[in-house]
Amino acid sequence: xxxxxxxxxxxxxxxxxxxxxxxxxxxxxxxxRGETSVAIVCDGCGDPASSHSEVGAAxxxxxxxxxxxxxxxSEAGRLATAEEAERVLEQVRREMLGSLRKxxxxxxxxxxxxxxxxxxxxxxxxxxxxxxxxxxxxxxGTIIVNERATSIGPYPDNAPPYMAYALLPDCRGxxxxxxxxxxxxxxxELDTFLIGSDGVNDLIDxxxxxxxxxxxxxxxxxxxxxxxxxxxxxxxTERTEIDWQEHRKSVQRGCLPDDTTLVVGRKQ
Length: 268
What we know:
- This protein has about 270 residues and is α+β, with helices and mostly antiparallel strands.
- It has helices at about 15-20, 55-70, 80-105, 110-120, 200-205, 215, 220-225, 225-235, and strands at about 5-10, 25-35, 35-45, 120-130, 130-140, 140-145, 150, 180-185, 190-195, 240-245, 250, 260-265.
- The mean pLDDT is about 90.
- It contains eight helices and twelve strands.
- The chain starts with a strand and ends with a strand.
C-alpha cells in the first residue's frame, strides 16, 4: 500500500541561473490520497523568449498532479497494465491541454505569445496506487526505480518537447508530445524511486553529492520537508579554500549549473 511509502522533494536554482540573475524554472508537487500518491517535476523552458516559464512549471506541476490523482480516484483510473497506464496518462494530457489553452487566452490577447513566454515546461512524474506504479515523462529528466536509472534526453539543440507545443499552429509530430511510460511495476515490488529534472544528471555525475542513493537512504530527508532543498543549496554554495603555505586561494563555484529538482520515495 502506498501509505507504506515515505515521499519527499526539494529544489535549488542552478549556478548559471544565479550568475545570469535569472529565476529558477523548476517546480514539483506531491499529492497523497489514501492509497494513491502522485509526484510531478516540471522544468520550464530556458529559452530567452520564455521569460516567465517558471510560471508554467509551477502551475503545470500542481495541475497535472491534481488531475492525475483525480483520475486515479475514479473507477476508470487504473494502472493494472502498461496499456491502462498509458490511457490514463493520455486522458490527463488532453485535459491539461484544455486547461493550458484557457490559461493562454486569459493571460494575453495573443495566446501563442502567452504559451511561448509562460507555458512551456517538461514533465517527469510517477503515480502509485495500492497495486501498481507508473513512471513517465514528456521531455527530458531522470527516473530511478529500485536503483535502476533512466536518463531521458538530451534532445538535439537542447530543445526537448513541451506539452504546450500541441497548442501551437506549427507544432511538431504528436508522438513527441505524448507521455512516455518508462516503468510499470507492481507496488509490492517497488522499494525506492527518484524522479527529477535534467539537472539531476549533474547531481549524479558530481563527486560532491556523496552518491545519489543518499537522497532515498537518509531518513532526515523524510523527517524534515526542507532537508533536500537545503542539501541541494549547500552543494551550490561557493566555498573558498585557502592554502596558507602556498599563499593560494581557490573558489569552488558550486556543483549544479542548472536548476535541480527531485522527488524521492522509499518503502518504510
